[in-house]
Write a structure and sequence with these properties.
721 residues; alpha/beta; Rossmann fold; Dimethylsulfoxide Reductase, domain 2; Barwin-like endoglucanases; 6-stranded mixed barrel; 27 helices; globular
């Protein structure tokens, strides 16, 4: 007989509540949880079809070893022994930085894994940690560290009270929101308009979320000019809250001088946003009682993602909207992660590479993966919850060849994906239905949510017998490598005991183990919340936390800069802006008629994670979306193929026509290209084309302030095939 369990989706930051019917340890049905305290019965299609991931016949449920082209199931004892022996050999011969790590976005939905992953690599002495965060978000963490004192002080829009919200490069109706929690985003944004406010989407594509407000086209990768002009126009129009800025911030004169040349008229020449339109936006923003600007992946991935976010945060700050109801709020979670990170200094900004590129939140640039491997800096690697061959810049398949040359490649994942097929070992991890969990770290520890809440979910299903949690894997590897995690021998001894006990089944021994449930229980109780068991029993749909009404951040000890002031003009940004912006502007003027490539999110896909779900993926390919006028000029019709060529590679892909695409723009959904996915049967039969073959890597194609790869606004040529 089926019974219903309550949990929440971990596909994206929305973390919508779900009801799951379970019978004989199998999912019978998944529905949105109408009683969830925030999502209230909303969920997108990805979460409610997760049963096809959970019970996929392609799932890896025991350790796998590749011998030649053949895969063999092996024991955990053999896997840990062989992997650790090869790690020790690499470290002894080439140093600890020769053994690297890469984690994907799914790692952010796993509260415990990052603690043990980072502890293992710190114990080894390796700083060579990569992540797909350098494909989409590290620019934001860099700016927050420099302006506010910690990378994990992230402001978010107070959508319940704002009167004006401009959204650049984001499409929350399809992909959720980057680094803040807003389920049922379209309805929440429509509510702003319904109560008399204004919501404006600025994007090269008329995105699905634009139904909630107004839409303005902007030429790809020109947002830095629009934001510089916005900042300047706001200052000139008297939109600065002088008293608040002088008391709580520093650097306004430097900021004002930096943007002084950027007028509404000047930006219009390259952005396509008219001077009058920008002036109108600035006026609406200035007059609103509570306003905010928010940007996400589409802007982050350009050549100036860090400068864009800096200017946007400055606009929010100087207008008096930072830390104000209806503006941009700063959350505080059950653990003050911002302060802990600042105190420990472990994932703060570092320059520990010989090419001068930074490590932001502990992550080195993913765009340097292939060069680092080819030049011998990386000899071995663990890839956790990621598919970098499709998610990262991969000019002409260079990354495929680099990974194939590693001495040791280990994947920790649910499936043997494309990079897994090149691996020497694939280690099975649990799905989120098999993990006890609290929401994404950014909600639990930074509370980036307009409606603060907490929820705890017990594991809905028992994992297959040979599946192991990531914390268990790293603990066992540390033991076998002879290193001490967390710097404490007594804790290492406890972890050694714990990894034996946690999977014991006989005689009730498992009850005394330090399980994930007990670890999370400690976090909840430390924050003054009910423990895990009480949360699951008494608050299965979540519990609301105190409302954030603003005026609780600025001027307090929570501002973690050395002088307690928000820095509006960090020297690296001012210098970079002055050194690069004129050359970028001249380049845009010279190439106004060239095509530019942008990515496109799809409601039924989340990066590569949904590629193997038959109910969600039915098309055999992705498409290049073109404005009809551009298609007519190229002589190409619906469904016909074009060659798309950049300076780094070329792909062939069929076309779809859309008036919602800005002229001289081509939009291609990323994270397709599954023709080599021999461990993903459905994905291989619906392969599509890898648009990241068109993106460059290496130092010259990486944004130097944040280590971000240039993945949006790439100049391309199109020809009918």
């Amino acid at each position: 007989m089926a019974h219903t369990r309550y949990t929440f989706c971990r596909t994206c930051e929305a973390t919508c509540g779900l009801e799951v019917d379970v019978e004989d340890n199998r999912v019978v049905a998944i529905r949105p949880d109408r009683a969830h305290v925030v999502s209230k019965g909303y969920s997108c299609v990805k979460g409610i079809h997760f049963d096809q991931v959970q019970h996929s016949p392609d799932r890896i449920t025991a350790p796998q070893k590749r011998v030649g082209d053949t895969w063999h199931t092996i024991s955990w004892e053999q896997a840990i022994a062989e992997i650790s022996e090869r790690i020790r050999a690499i470290v002894a011969r080439d140093g600890p930085d020769a053994f690297a790590h890469l984690v994907g976005s799914a790692g952010g939905a796993n509260v415990l894994a990052p603690m043990f992953r980072n502890a293992f690599y710190k114990a080894l002495g390796s700083r060579r940690m990569f992540g797909t965060g350098t494909c989409d978000t590290t620019n934001k963490f860099r700016v927050c560290e420099d302006m506010y004192g910690s990378p994990f002080q992230l402001s978010y829009p107070d959508v319940g009270r704002t009167e004006f919200l401009a959204i650049l490069g984001a499409n929350p109706a399809v992909s959720g929101n980057t680094l803040y929690h807003l389920p049922h985003a379209v309805q929440r944004l429509k509510d702003i308009v319904r109560r008399g406010g204004r919501v404006v989407f600025i994007n090269p594509r008329r995105i699905e979320t634009a139904q909630a407000g107004e839409h303005l086209f902007i030429r790809p990768d020109t947002d830095v000019f629009l934001l510089a002009a916005w900042c300047n126009e706001l200052i000139r129009a008297g939109g600065v809250d002088r008293e608040r800025v002088e008391r709580l911030m520093k650097g306004l004169p430097e900021l004002q001088q930096t943007v002084a040349d950027w007028t509404a008229e000047r930006q219009a020449a390259v952005t396509g946003v008219s001077a009058q339109t920008l002036s109108d936006l600035v006026e609406s923003h200035r007059k609103a009682r509570g306003a905010g600007l928010y940007m996400a992946t589409g802007v982050n991935q350009g050549r100036s993602g860090t400068l864009c976010f800096w200017l946007l945060e400055c606009i929010n700050a100087i207008s008096g909207n930072l830390d104000r109801a209806g503006g941009m709020l700063m959350g505080q979670g059950i653990v003050d992660m911002a302060r802990e990170v600042k105190r420990a200094g472990e994932v703060t900004l570092r320059h520990d590479r010989d090419d001068g590129l930074p490590s932001v939140v502990g992550l080195q640039p993913s765009g340097m993966l292939a060069p680092d491997i080819e030049q011998g800096r990386v000899k071995g690697m663990i890839v956790e919850a990621s598919n970098p061959l499709l998610a990262c810049s991969n000019p002409g398949g260079r990354l495929d060849r680099a990974f194939a040359g590693l001495e040791l490649l280990v994947c920790i994942d649910l499936f043997r994906n494309e990079v897994g097929s090149l691996a020497h070992y694939v280690l099975p991890a649990p799905t989120w239905l098999e993990r006890a969990e609290i929401p994404y770290a950014l909600q639990s520890f930074m509370a980036c949510t307009p409606v603060p809440y907490m929820v705890y979910s017990e594991a809905v299903l028992e994992p297959p017998p040979e599946v192991r949690h990531e914390w268990w894997i790293y603990s066992r590897l540390a033991e076998a490598c002879g290193v001490t995690m967390f710097g404490k021998r007594w804790l290492a001894a406890l972890l050694r005991l714990n990894t034996r006990l946690v999977h014991a089944r006989a005689g009730g021994v498992r009850k005394i183990a330090l399980t994930p449930e007990k670890m999370i229980d400690g976090m909840l109780k430390k924050a003054g919340l009910p423990g895990a068991a009480a949360m699951a029993r008494e608050h299965p749909h979540g519990i609301l936390m105190p409302e954030n009404r603003g005026d609780n951040y600025l001027g307090t000890a929570r501002v973690l800069t050395d002088d307690g002031l928000v820095d509006l003009a960090p020297a690296p940004y001012v210098e970079t802006f002055r050194e690069r912006i004129e050359a970028l502007y001249a380049d845009e003027l010279a190439h106004r008629d060239d095509f530019k490539l942008i990515g496109k999110r799809e409601i039924k896909r989340m990066n590569t994670a949904s590629a193997n779900v038959p109910r969600l993926v039915r098309d055999a390919t992705n498409y290049a979306y073109l404005n009809p006028a551009d298609a007519a000029e190229l002589g190409v019709g619906e469904g016909e193929a074009v060659t798309v060529r950049s300076a780094f590679g070329a792909i062939e892909i069929p076309v779809r026509l859309s008036a919602g695409i800005m002229p001289r723009t081509v939009a291609i959904p990323q994270c397709w290209g599954h023709d080599k996915a021999d461990g993903l049967a459905h994905a291989r039969n619906h392969p599509g084309v890898n648009s990241n073959y068109l993106a460059g890597d290496g130092v010259e194609n990486i944004e130097a302030l944040s280590g971000m790869s240039h993945l949006s606004g790439i100049r391309v040529e199109l020809r009918k095939l």
